Structure of DUF3817 domain-containing protein:
Amino acid sequence: MPQPKLASFPAIRGALRFYQIASVITGVGLLLLCAEMILKYTPLAVEVFAGGSGGLLWLAPVVPGPEGELLSTGDGLNLSLGILIVHGWFYVVYLFACFRIWSLMRWPFWRFLLLACGGIVPLLSFFMETRVARDVKAYLVRRERDAAASESIPATEGTR
């Protein structure tokens, strides 16, 4: 399998930092989304709202509609819907961050799929972020050390 070129190491460090930030934001968003789903689709049957008739932050019940869908009864800013939309769009950013680190590191495709799962499996993005950061940093240090060692070995002259 081809290895990243030494010249791409600054780009890899930048991609790693971007991946780490995107991973944490995506993980937090996914946890909020899971909490929202529990509130809405369990017997609690409520959504979170900001403003409106309930005050600064409040829970409004959801009721079944004519075709079985759940209809919101709250007014104001629907934070439950906002969490859903923000996580969905930020997952696209997270996938870009995964693709960038994956392509720069020249990893096999299965590793990209594993990275992508971090945005859909709760808590996985936090574990993946830690593992990927440790692996990439160790790889870069090892390759730079090997390159420095090979440069310090003088070229041997021809045999006499």
Observations:
- The radius of gyration is 24 Å.
